[in-house]
Amino acid sequence: MIHEHHFGQAEPRAGEARTRVVVALTAVTMVVEIAAGLAYGSMALLADGLHMASHASALGLALVAYVYARRHAHDRRFSFGTGKVNALAGFASAVVLALFAVMMAGESAHRFLEPVPIAFNEAIVVAILGLAVNGLSVVLLRDHQSHGHQGDHHHDHNLRAAHLHVFADALTSLLAIFALLAAKHFGAVWMDPAMGVVGGALVARWAWGLVKDTGAVLLDRQAPDAVLEEITRPVEADGRFRVVDLHAWSIGPGYRAAIVSVVTSEPCQRSDVVPLIPEDLRIAHLTVEVECRGRHLQQPPEATRADDPPMAG
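Request: output the structure for the sequence above.
Response:
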């Protein structure tokens, strides 16, 4: 009997409900900030509003990814389930972040050359409102999952992307307030577009980090050396086996797949190797190849079946 490969993706993830709330908050605040930025002439405020527009779209994408992954979790066309939909949405969000970072910096540079009058009091009030909403969103989307020595595979990259979007919004709101206060009280009008440039640079840096992390998942990057060692050490400590080939990679938030090839000088089976691999590594799909070189006996590759001991903790 062929077992299913949904690995818990059919269940709603913790970040889905929180993302729904943040999408609504972001959309409303976006409209207010863009309208206020145009009405009061503040580039920093307008940049914050436009930034929120990109994030409203990205957060909407994150929500769609959660729903899609859940509804298609049992679709056998996905070899290892829909876990990578999470990383794909995070990658797309990172690209959106990078594009709007460039737009922010470009528009801010234009305002250096052609400044416009700013209604400081009104713009400051709206910026403070945006900061409050963004601060609440940052708290709501905070990822409480740990990712110690086993690498970052526990991360919900979709939730992380959403969190980065609202964190970037909070930063640009804070920079907008700072710039508006400096321009109002010290006549430093140049601070308004300058904060747009600074905000764009910081957002671009975050976007690049997210692109690298999600891209690694999408491209099946090998697990960290510490994880490979945690697989190899107990298997070889048994005394009967030597690991000759090993692959381990992330197939979704909190789950890995692994292929372990071992050689032995005595007749052994896959079932002798599986219990040696630590369950806390959360290997949801394990393939073990056993070769008995002494007797020229080779076990064909086998995939985890529904009646095998669960590898995920």
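The radius of gyration is 25 Å.
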